[in-house]
Amino acid sequence: MKKRSLLLLAAVVLVAAGAAGTLWWRDHQNDLPDFIASGNGRIEAEEVHVATKYAGRVAEVLVNEGDMVEAGQVLARMDTSELRAELAAAKASIAQARENVVEARAQIIQRESELKFAEQELERADTLVKKGHISQQQADQKRTDRETAQAALDAARARLASTQAAVEAARAQAERIETQIADSTLAAPRAGRVQYRLAEPGEVLASGGRVVTLLDLTDVYMTIFLPTAEIGRLLVGSEARILLDAVPQYVIPATVSFISAEAQFTPREVETRSEREKLMFRVKVKIAPTLLSEHIEKVRTGLPGEAYVMLGGGSAWPERFAVNLPPAAGQ
Q1: Which of 90, 226, 273, 282 could lock 174 by a disulfide, CB 3.0 to 4.6 Å apart?
Q2: Which helix (H) or strand (E) holds 3?
Q3: Class in CATH terms, 33-47+215-321
Q4: What are phi and psi for residue 213, nearest 5 degrees?
Q5: pTM for the whole thing?
Q6: What whole-number distance in Å separates Cα of residue 174 and Cα of residue 90?
Q7: What's the distance, CA 273 to chain centroid?
């Protein structure tokens, strides 16, 4: 009986504490001036997925979850042994095609010489026919020889064009393979923190397979939902403040960076002062990248909190919303 009484007493205390917290939250919301609106949400950061462009085997992954990386830093490499073999074959094709070009040019010189000789022979034959020293049939044979030489020259020139095109095709093939080899080195497109390491060495990935997911800690925001009455007085660029449950003593300055153009139903996990069935507008409240850079080691995503935005007609922030930040890194 004594144990049951203690459990009952503890339950009563918890219920009372919860009721007191709810009443405090409502009173706290009612204390807001009419030119400030608020909504709760979580700190989010822009995710960047680093994926392989081509199918292949992962050779090495150079970062771990939680690592901070710089833009351009190599994160992983794909196996390029097969590509390098293809590149060697392509370079051999280039060399062979270039040799064919040299041969085709030499053949053109030969065919030009043969044509010149055939034209001279035809000219002499025409002269001899006029003098009656040879028959017309012999002159016609020389004319045929000249036309054959001309055709051979045309064929040699066409072959030269073909071999030159083969060189360009082989060079393009080599450049394509070199590009694939370069793309097999996966670098960070921007600075950030490694959130997930999704692949390990030896794994075979399809084209577009993700290897690492980064969080861009200079693109951090909180998403809240506001009703129509308040959204009509809100503009992109309006001042905002963010208070996190984990560190309520700090007031973080922010700016409204996005307002949804269409209303939507409030998600069930979002608490608002309006009824859940009421249509709400999604709003993104973003923290300045320069401020984030100064506190980059302290930035954590997923933290719940409250965002406050200043509506049109607002004058100044109440004293409790005065900016108050933790010391910057190195201070």
Answers
A1: 90
A2: helix 2-30
A3: mainly beta
A4: -115, 125
A5: 0.66
A6: 5
A7: 39
Q: What is the sign of the dihedral through the CA atoms of 37, 43, 48 and 49?
A: negative
- What ranges in 132-214 are assigned the alpha helix state H? 136-183
User: What is the per-residue pLDDT across 285-302, written as a single tens digit (0 to 9) for each?
Assistant: 999 988 888 888 788 888
Q: What is d(CA 309, CA 300) in angstroms, rounded to the nearest whole number?
A: 22
| Nearest one of 213, 219, 207 to 285, comparing CA atoms | 219
Tokens of 214: 């980064």
CA nearest neighbour of 256 among 323, 217, 310, 210: 310
Give residue-wise pLDDT tens across range 90-135: 999 999 999 999 998 999 899 889 889 888 888 888 888 788 778 8
Tell me how far apart the alpha carbons of residues 255 and 288 are, in angstroms, rounded to a whole number. Answer: 8
**Residue with structure tokens 């199918």?**
55
Q: Are 29 and 308 spatial neighbours (Cβ–Cβ below 8 Å)?
A: no
Give the three-class secondary structure for 263.
coil
pLDDT at 134: 81
Report yes or no: 102 and 160 within 8 Å, Cβ to Cβ: no
Residue 15 is inside which H or E element, if any? helix 2-30
Does domain 81-183 bear CATH number 1.10.287.620? yes
